[in-house]
Amino acid sequence: MALCFFCNPIHAEHAVIDLRVISPAGSAKAASDQEPPVGGVNPRPRLKVKAGDPLVLNFVLINAYPHGRLKDVIVHYSVTHIAKSTAKAGPDKDAVLFGEVTLNFKPKSRVGSRIKFHLDQPGLYLVRIETQNTKSDHEHFSAIEVDVQ
Amino acid sequence: MPRRAGRAGCERVANGENLVESGQVPVYPYIDLIFAGATVAVMMKAQIHSGNGRQRYDRRRGWMTFFLSIVPKGLGQTNLRSRIRLSRAWSLGIICFVLSTNILQADDFRIRIQVNGKSAEPSPPEKSPHRPAVRVNHNQPVLVNWEATNQNDSINFKNVLVHFYVIKQASPDSPVPSKLGNQAVYEGAITADFESGEKASWKFELNLPEIGVYLLRIETLGLKSMRAGEVSSELNLITE
Question: Are the C-beta atoms of B11 and B132 separated by less than 8 Å?
Fold first, then answer.
């Protein structure tokens, strides 16, 4: 009983993320991770593409938190240029693309998107989707690095 | 006209900002009127064929005759003429009810689209008679923000899917595609409950590299069972 009491329900998984970046030569897929620690615990998948290749960003985020509704949750996604691997995503004003969804999450609420884009400048880019304002001690995210050559 | 889809109701332009609000589809009242008229015709025919009122339920005519024979009897009307008169009034009541619920539900779920691109300018309405249009520069990203709100004080809409997409169109008057496929430049969807007063929004930056006409459409799926119909809002983004 004491064990049940001290098990913090906040640590329960509350977002299942399926993030994919699809290029003509292949695709990369990333699952849900969480912060802290900064950058999560899973290594970021990396996708090599050619500059100007038509790319597709595809994600589905499902709220797996079963204990009621979460108000004003933000689902933020962006593609930003980063100087080196493991770097954090830059601000939205420097992003190649970004978006933000605000909604009240009920159990099994979904957010999904499919975006066509292309990266014309060579370099390393971070594709990232994350939850914000879940009033939890951690947030969930998913990230893929795209190496444009 | 696009498939039972509502075109945006009004367009406001202020300080370089374009705001489009969804309106209730004007097609729905006519459909309801036709439906109500057909109901009256069937009811009257069924009533007359029910003879002296002893035929309570005719299987060939279905539930309508059953319904007709029960209600007037319940109101104490045994005379055939009285029953016909009563059923006429009753039918009129149904029409009024259907139309009034439609009017009441006209603004209960609203979708607003906001286009904040600095280079965006509204096109003259005569050039896109079916949809509002916003002219944007193809070299500059367009910031789009849409918001869906349940404005009904008493109804909670459950499991509503709000879907939006941006697709390239041949002309400003091109109809809404019946099947989307992979042609969308940008597509997204959310599923959520909309309790009274609640809203959901999606803000995104849109890059439209090609010159042409793009349709931005936001639509609901799943409202139909809880109100008169689905809600949608759309506009043309014309890149130059």
Answer: yes
Instruction: Please provide the average confidence, as pLDDT, over all residues in chain B.
Output: 68
Separation between Cα atoms, residue B83 and residue B69, nearest integer Å? 9
- Is B187 close to A115, i.e. CB distance below 8 A? yes
8 Å CB contact between B144 and B113: yes
A12-148 under CATH 3.40.640.10, yes or no: no
Chain centre distance of CA A70: 18
Amino acid residing at A45 = P
B173 touches chain A (CB under 8 A): no
Non-local (6+) Cβ contacts of B225 within 8 A are none
Residue with tokens 């024979």: B69
Query: What's the gap between Cα B206 and its chain centre?
Result: 26
Q: What is the ipTM of this complex?
A: 0.85
Using one digit for the tens of pLDDT, what is the confidence trace for B140-170? 888 998 989 988 888 888 889 999 999 998 8
pLDDT in tens, B169-178: 888 888 888 8
What is d(CA A14, CA A49) in angstroms, rounded to the nearest whole number? 32
DSSP A102-149: EEEEPTT-EEEEEEEE---S-EEEEEEEEEE---SS-EEEEEEEEEE-
pLDDT average per 10 residues of sequence, chain A (149 residues): 41 78 91 82 89 92 85 91 76 83 89 91 92 85 91
Quick check: bond before A107 cis, omega within 30?
no
Cβ-nearest to A102 among B195, B200, B207: B200
Chain A residues with CB under 8 Å of B193 CB are 69, 104, 106, 109
B185–A contact, CB cutoff 8 A: yes
